[in-house]
Fold:
Amino acid sequence: MNRAYPSVDEAIADVFDNATIALGGFFTAGSPIRLTEALANQGAKNLTIIVQSVGIGNWEVNMLLENRQVRKVICNYPFFRSASRVSLFEQQLRAGEVECEVYPLGTFIEKLRAGGAGIAGFYTPTGVGTLVAEGKECRAFNGKEYLLELAISPDFAFVHAYKGDPYGNLVYRETSRNYNPEMAMSANITIAEVENLVGPGEINPDQVHTPGIFVQRVVKVDRPDIDVTIEVSPEEMNT
Amino acid sequence: MVTPALPGSVIGISRELMALRVAAEIEDGSYVNLGIGIPTLVSNWIEGRDIVLQSEIGMLNTGPLAEADQIDQDLINASCQPVTELPGCCYFSIGESFAMIRGGHMDIAVLGAMQVSEKGDLASWNVPASGRGKTGNIGGSMDLAVGARKVIVITEHVTRTGEPKIVRECIYPLTARKCVNLIVTNLAVIEVVSEGLLLKEIVAGLTTEDIQAVTEPRLIISPDLKELAL
Structure:
């Protein structure tokens, strides 16, 4: 089996208009920047993007927003903290050009995990009694209230890993693991960009984080060199 | 060190000292998640103690912020800051991270607040006046508020315009109902008990009347009322 692709462009070539795509990563750690760049070049439109944040923690989404490729975003942290800083996404949202669905982070990731694990939905205590519960079934178990959240199974997931092999086995590095394992599980087609593409047997089987069965395509990319100190100022985080 | 507060132009102790007071509340052997914003200051006061900090992005035993030569783009906290490892550190996915949080494994969450009600309801993610409607930065706040065994809120006692943040009912959209256990402000330490809000400590130079004047619900004065000691 060889799931390795020669280039990011070939790996994402069949992404279609109206597709739903999960993008892993957070800020500088584990974001599939090269695949997202390739998608911006490829030009598929009317996309639903599932991502932690939009244009603050995950600024690569801006490439898609600038191209007007995005119809809807499903996330858990859509805006800059300070209401006086308005991101490109917030401008487009206020202008009615994109839609936004927000979930609590734990619910967001569990929807993806459930989607990958064949679970239609789950009852969570998170969000009970809040705006998040509006229109959702609430039910008590053992005297405690829960609400029903449904799974998501995207058409594609783009993930970033430190190491991968031709079987699709992946190893992440430090906190760049974050959203990537659940997103890899969730999608119909998962495409992994990897900093190191190694041969079969070169990853210690005991240390595989995402088993290759969840990963349909692997493509080698250069390690993105990102300035960790940019983009989010202390003022932004401490207001 | 401490400036007495006056209702309307409240000063009290600094954010750093509020964080120090919260640190004193955390027992050794605890697993703790610090929310973004003021709560991250608590990490400055627990170095060397037997406390494990969880970073919700997927890390236990998160160390201090990275110095320039230690910065690694793969090693950041939930506030997008480069951090370091402590011995005994481990990494995991966000799914596992929120199993820890929602599953009741986290001893303490320290969270910021826009409003806290006398029943311990928390509002921390959405200001209606922002024009952002029903969307907002929920992040991990709702899961932490619901899942942590103990929720400590660290907040200024009043808003920048002098309005009480400790209120009878939250006007802002809720993060979770009846989740807050302890409130540490620049003026006082208040415990949420079944009868209401128990005023336990106040900053030196202030009276219980001073605190009541900037707090909407009626406070229960603890028989063991103390000066807030740092």
Remarks:
- Chain B has a mean pLDDT of 93.
- Residues 120 and 180 of chain B are 5 Å apart (CA to CA).
- The two ends of chain B are 10 Å apart (CA to CA).
- Chain B is about 15% helix and 30% strand.
